[in-house]
Amino acid sequence: MVALTSCGFLPSLLVTASGSESINFWQALVMGFVQGLTEFLPISSSAHLRVIPAILGWPDFGASFTAVIQLGSLVAVLIYFREDLRRVLTGTVAALQKQEFESEEFKIFLGVTIGTLPILFAGAVIKKLFGEPTRNLIVIALTSIGLALLLGLAERYGRRNRTLKDIRVLDGILVGIGQAVALIPGVSRSGSTITTALFLGLERQVAARFSFLLGIPALFLAGVVEAVTEVKGFSSLPPLLVGTVSAFVFSYLSIDWLLKFLQRSSTLVFIIYRILFGLFLLTCIQFGWLSPL
């Protein structure tokens, strides 16, 4: 398949991404769109950021570029939940001053804080041992199907009778472990945390809301660390900025849509999509249409 970078009208200014591959403005815009659309939906942004370029004949731009444009998703979630964050932070300060440790705000803050520790530990171990998580398409296909089945079980057996007021420290730990599992491409951070939260009995919209709040520290740390090492010259900034702004716009829209969708619907559409997506990848690999590496 002919890569779109061969088209003469595309901008020629390039940025070096992980793996010494180059990305132009058009590719950065599309990748930002994919990142924003899939980051908060339970379908795996890392999987789609790996698969879409492969289908279009583009190079794999690597995990570093992905982590940098995730900053756009981070800004989107910060703006969207600014009132929630303000309430949690001010409520936590008040709880500490009055020693009212059973307040909703303090429990949410503690749950998010403790829930971030598993992904920090797992991320450090993976970085030390393997450098970057595997981006093999066979792994992505199998994890896409596997998480779909788990999400289906969570929908079937989750009680969905708990709200944010019922958040416990144990919930933060368990959902945080689910978030750490999402370091495997294809699992989906949103998918694994929502699945875990549903198993713990949280309502669908509450599960998504807690998932988004829990993702803030992870997105911040991943994006900032990679941005410091990735952006090294002025010529690298324009495409990265295009991708990041694109990710911001579509992340904000996807957050708003998902929360409203889960008020009236189950996650069945995502379960079906993940299974079809995984089967599609396995079929393409089997017939040699896509390389798994």
Measured between the Cα atoms of the first and last residue, the distance is: 17 Å
- Number of helices in the DSSP assignment: 11
Number of strands: 2
SSE order, as H and E? EEHHHHHHHHHHH
Low-confidence stretches: 1-20
- Assembly of the depicted chains: single chain
Compute the CA-based radius of gyration. Answer: 19 Å
The average pLDDT is 85
Show the helix and strand layout.
Blueprint lengths: L14 E3 L3 E3 L1 H15 L5 H12 L5 H19 L1 H17 L5 H27 L6 H21 L11 H13 L7 H11 L4 H27 L6 H28 L3 H19 L7
Antiparallel strand pairs: 1-2
Helix pairs in contact: 1-2, 1-3, 1-10, 3-9, 3-10, 4-5, 5-7, 5-9, 6-8, 6-11, 7-8, 8-9, 9-10
Task: Tell me what the structure shows.
By secondary structure, the chain is mainly alpha-helical. It has one domain (16-286). 71% of the residues lie in helices and 2% in strands. It is built from eleven helices and two strands, in the order ββααααααααααα. The chain has helices at residues 25-39, 45-56, 62-80, 82-98, 104-130, 137-157, 169-181, 189-199, 204-230, 237-264, 268-286, and strands at residues 15-17, 21-23. β1 (15-17) and β2 (21-23) form a beta hairpin.
Write out key terms for the chains shown.
globular, 71% helix, two-stranded antiparallel ribbon, 293 residues, mainly alpha
Briefly say what this structure is.
The N terminus is likely disordered.
